[in-house]
Write a structure and sequence with these properties.
heterodimer; A: mainly beta; six-stranded mixed sheet; B: 114 residues; mainly beta; four-stranded antiparallel sheet; 11 strands
Amino acid sequence: GNSVTQMEGPVTLSEEAFLTINCTYTATGYPSLFWYVQYPGEGLQLLLKATKADDKGSNKGFEATYRKETTSFHLEKGSVQVSDSAVYFCALMKFSGANSKLTFGKGITLSVRP
Amino acid sequence: EAEVAQSPRYKITEKSQAVAFWCDPISGHATLYWYRQILGQGPELLVQFQDESVVDDSQLPKDRFSAERLKGVDSTLKIQPAELGDSAMYLCASSLSGTVYGYTFGSGTRLTVV
C-alpha cells in the first residue's frame, strides 16, 4: 500500500539556519505529494504541493521538489524564522476519483530558537 | 477565505460516555473526510464521504464509532462508548471531487477521555 516516511525528529535550529526535512514515499504510479504544517493547537494547513515528477512546490520561502527517481519530496528553507516553529507533515495522494485520500507521514516537530 | 467549521473545539468526556463531533465543510465540497490524529503521529483516515454516501470506512472502529452525512452537507462523528484510547484530535476536511490538489482541514476537536 501507499506510505510516507519522514525523518525522525524533533529538529531544533537557530533563527536564519538552513532547514531540510526528509520525506520519502512508497506508492504505485504517480501520486501527488504535499507538505502540511500544523501550528500548536490548530488543524493542518497546506504548505505546498507537487503533482508530477520534477515539479517544485513553493510557498512562504519553503520549497520541495518531486523526485520520482528517489521517491522523495524533501522540504527545504534557506533561512528559518521563529514563526516557522510547528509540526510538518509530508503526505501523498493517489488519485482514484471519488476514492482519493491523503496518506500522511508521522510528522516532525521543528523548533526555531531566536 | 472559506473554512471548514468544526465543533466543539475541545471536549472532555468520561470513559463509557457518548460523544459527538460536528463538521461543516466548505460550500460546494462534495467530499468530506474524518481523520484521527493521536498525539505525536500523523492523521489517519477514519471515514470518507462522497455527498451523503460512505466511500471508505475501512479504518473506522464500527463497534463504537459511527458517522453520518445525511443531506450531503454537514457531518457528525459519534463515539459510543468512549474509551481512554480514543483521546486524540479529530480532524474534518473537505475537497472538491476529483481533485489532486489536497484538501482543506478544519481546526479539529481535541478529545480527552478520562
